[in-house]
Specification:
Blueprint lengths: L1 H35 L4 E9 L3 E8 L6 E8 L4 E5 L3 E2 L4 E8 L6 E13 L3 E18 L2 E8 L4 E10 L6 E6 L4 E11 L2 E10 L6 E11 L6 E11 L2 E4 L2 E7 L5 E13 L1 E5 L3 E4 L7 E12 L4 E11 L6 E10 L9
Parallel strand pairs: 1-8, 9-15, 17-23
Antiparallel strand pairs: 2-6, 3-5, 3-7, 4-6, 7-8, 8-10, 10-13, 11-14, 12-13, 14-15, 16-18, 18-21, 19-22, 20-21, 22-23
Length: about 350
């Protein structure tokens, strides 16, 4: 009888252990995937036929080891998944682009994107997208892509809306999320059950430098689906460029002097007024000369900077129309260690 009781106790204990392991593993997987995939779902809303409709799911490798994504499976052909890279180094970032196939699908659609990871350990993470592709409205082209824009210069692009359906359908407004995007519209054709509109979007001179992917919202008098987004993208480049754009000093002692070579290029001749970096003392030879290319050796010393640093090194030109350009400086400024004699 004693043996039977011992056997039953062991059996019950062994039966309980896997359940606790499963719960722990599930919780750990949830925590891990939430950190690596901070966004797991996205709704495209209501979009027009042939509109360029995409979303980037960010991937942040917080595992501490290199990550390899073996494949991505889509449950529906309405969405095409595109990885920025199958390999993401430890501490690195990437993305999974979900492209909604608006030219070939209609109506309410959705897909589950299964990301299969085989390094540093095996796991499957599911991301979800959905949206409604209306068949009565077409953007041509499907997005407004400005390409490269020189900062300080305005640029204009556009598209057309082709509608077929109600005779009283109208575009009543168009709005942008950014103050420096100026959208306008006008009707250029109307017939029985159809209408054509021309949309014009201007990027204003004060647009900030950098890549932008935004949208404007076309407002119609359709009560059921009044708002339709239009994708707008471009890259505003500054008239002043720094090379290198990223400066990594590694481990640095307080008051340690470091020398960095910079090449600063402009579209027009310019003089340098200042070079500054928060927490650092910056010195350079400045003769006030105006030229398109400046090659400098700057001396940098930690001033108030301590610990892990990620700061903007800002260069400002002289003159009434002063412009700036920035590079990113990273370093680990260690504190002096004081040895106490015993």
């Amino acid at each position: 009888m004693a043996r039977l009781n011992t056997f039953l106790i062991c059996f019950v204990s062994m039966a309980c252990v896997p359940a606790s392991v499963v719960v722990t593993t599930t919780a750990a997987h949830a925590d891990w995937s939430d950190a690596v995939f901070p966004v797991k779902s996205h709704s495209f809303g209501t979009v027009a036929v042939a509109s360029k409709t995409e979303f980037k799911f960010p991937i942040r490798n917080t595992t501490g080891r290199d990550m390899h994504i073996r494949e991505v499976r889509a449950s529906c052909g309405c969405t095409t998944p595109i990885l920025s890279s199958n390999y993401i180094p430890a501490g690195g970032e990437g993305y999974l682009l979900a492209r909604f196939n608006t030219p070939t699908f209609r109506g309410k659609k959705g897909a589950t994107l299964t990301v299969v990871i085989d390094q540093p350990f095996y796991s499957e993470v599911q991301l979800k997208v959905d949206g409604y592709i209306r068949s009565d409205m077409v953007f041509h082209p499907g997005s407004v892509e400005f390409g490269t824009i020189n900062q300080g210069e305005a640029k204009t692009g556009g598209t057309k809306i082709y509608y077929a359906g109600r005779s009283d359908w109208q575009v009543v407004d168009i709005r942008a999320n950014q103050s420096w995007l100026i959208p306008q519209f006008k009707q250029i054709e109307r017939g029985p059950g159809k209408a054509t509109y021309e949309l014009t979007i201007a990027v204003r001179e004060d647009a900030p430098a950098g890549t932008f992917q935004d949208e404007v919202i076309v407002q119609t008098n359709d009560r059921s689906m009044p708002r339709v987004p239009l994708r707008v993208s471009g890259n505003v480049v500054t008239s002043l460029n720094i090379s290198p754009k990223s400066i990594a000093f590694g481990t640095v002692k307080p008051d340690q002097e470091l020398v960095q070579r910079l090449v600063i290029t402009g579209r027009e001749p310019f003089a340098i007024a200042s070079i500054k970096c928060p927490g650092w003392n910056v010195e350079f030879d400045n003769n006030g000369a105006e030229k398109k290319i400046h090659v400098l050796s700057i001396k940098m010393t930690p001033d108030s900077a301590r610990g892990a640093q990620r700061s903007a090194l800002t260069i400002e030109t002289a003159g009434e129309k002063s412009i700036t350009a920035k590079a990113i400086l990273t370093a680990d400024v260690i504190s002096e260690q004081v040895v106490v004699a015993r």
